[in-house]
């Protein structure tokens, strides 16, 4: 009997897994298209706050411009900064000159990766249709909050990474560790974590709501 039961449940699990993969692929495709279409606008909308935060991280540097530049191939966040107070980097001392400065950029889709992963996973996770939609919305809100933190930290970390590589400095600062983590799979981990939080919290609230009504 147990053998018969296990044999009958195996195909059902296989169908459920195939359905989840298909829905996940659909969600990723839809999220990717939406990010390609609206991602630059989303990132542009938070650039004023991002610029203020980056300026506040270190008063020795000042952001001259922070924009999203779009081409046919890609959209990138471009930041230009200048030194406004002396900085010692390795064996070099940098002084304000009032001109020059340096520029760095990062792709918009890379910045939005946690949002894409979180919304796609939360929207595809098996649940009732209404609950799936709620999971996706909660994941979207949490991922946007993550974006508000991640973008200024990433740009500031990129700035110091550029300075260290250009002027032969060495640093094991938390900022450098943050950047290394984000570039080596941290955004994937963040997206999965956000999706898990969204699904678990939404499911707990749904069960609590049903128990309260009953």
Features:
single chain; 214 residues; alpha+beta; three-stranded antiparallel sheet; two-stranded antiparallel sheet; 6 helices; 5 strands
Write the layout of secondary structure elements.
Blueprint: H1 2-45, H2 47-57, E1 61-70, E2 75-83, E3 87-89, E4 92-94, E5 102-107, H3 108-111, H4 113-124, H5 129-166, H6 174-213
Antiparallel strand pairs: 1-2, 2-5, 3-4
Polypeptide structure, described:
- This protein has 214 residues and is α+β, with helices and mostly antiparallel strands.
- 70% of the residues lie in helices and 14% in strands.
- It has helices at residues 2-45, 47-57, 108-111, 113-124, 129-166, 174-213, and strands spanning 61-70, 75-83, 87-89, 92-94, 102-107.
- The strands form 2 sheets. The chain has a 3-stranded antiparallel sheet. A two-stranded antiparallel sheet has the order 3-4.
- β1 (61-70) and β2 (75-83) form a beta hairpin.
- The radius of gyration is 22 Å and the shape is elongated.
